[in-house]
Amino acid sequence: MLMDVVNLRRGAIGGAWSALLVCALLVAAAPAAHGQYTGTLRIFVIEPDSRWDYDEGGEQIHQAFLDFAMVQSLNITSGATAEYSLTWDASDNGWTSITPDNIEVAAGVYDGFGVQQDAFPPYGYYFVAYYCDASATATPGVPGANDTTGGFTHSVLCEEASTTDCENCPGVSHDLGEIVQSGDYAFSYVALVKDVNSEAEERVEVDYNMPFRPDCFFDGGYQVAPGDQGEEVFRPLIEAAGAREGNDVDVVVRMDQSGDDAYDIVVRIGHAVAANADPAAPTTLSGPSGGEADEDLTFEASETDTEGDDLYYQFDWGDGKGSSDWLGPYSSGATCSADHAYPAEATYGVTVRTKDVYGAVSDWSDPLEVEIGGTVCCNVRGDTNGDGVGPDIADLVHLTSYMFQPPSPPPAHECPPGSGYYPETDSNGDGVAPDIADLVHLTSYMFQPPSPELVPCP
User: What b/e readout covers 405-443, taking b as 16+ CB neighbours within 10 angstroms?
Assistant: First the structure.
């Protein structure tokens, strides 16, 4: 029976496909423009937990294709990047009940030189395959990048052709989902459910000449798996696709909700260069050099991104309590500020790093030392010049000069910085310093025994 179906199908399409294949082979033989990458960007909009179920068994369809947010021809010079942005509005495209926790985009970069493949070997369901050279996925607020770890040259993208009334499709969906969840590969997939989506139908019927359901097209048809063949078949095909030496392209994608049903999507592609450069560790980190325990201290950092991307900042306070949340995003070059209170007297090292809107993270900055408590705010009451000796005549001269002979050296250790309070000069410990009462107290302490004691430093 299957052979009869195959023969009928081949007879119906034979003439048209023969002509198409001649054109495809001519295209494949044409030399590429020097230094140019020509191809196509496809941005798939996906609903991970689909509104559709398989009629067979009533299982939910996952990673269901909703729409092409963009199908864009590419022509990118070697060493250059190209950026594409759009707003995809679900309601404008006929979709309702879209929620930001159940929407995803996949960006696939397909080369422009077709290669003849068979969608159902050896029966001759020929189509022209345009291989996917790089891919990345994103959800709202969580960007994605093409992944070359694990021995892969790029992230592999599978387009699964299926229908709601397909008996074997739930098994394929389960197996592909298990592979994604395992994290073993840089791999993602989209379910092209052709009987509920006209764009999906066109993609699988016209572009892939789908003879069977389910049918998995890995990387634009570089590898094909018709039917429910299981993980033991899918995994080697994914590995083969991931090891393919394709064109030198890279891609990143981000997605942000901009309205009730609207999502801003940005894709950046690099040819023979990274699509997104890692941000630099902040070179500007400032804040107080000291303070008291449980006192809020303010620190500031800034950095300019080479690509002008907005940046997030994360501070590590150096107190073993972990890092701050990612703060931002801030415009490139803008200043981020954050407050932190230290729990105990010690010396701490504050560091900061940046993350751009595509998720690339910088190294940590050089540390800024902060001394909390102890000798930072107050060495000894009456040590007004801060030399660690005293109180002695030099401290009395220093305090007198400061009060009556301006301009004069300021007292040592303003604490907290900017407060106008100098604990060492507060000889009588009344919390106000310096004033005439402190000068009288210090003079009495030094020259009129028995004299009042100096209040210990906090």
Answer: eeeeeebbbbbbbeeebbbbbbbbbeeebbeeebbebbe
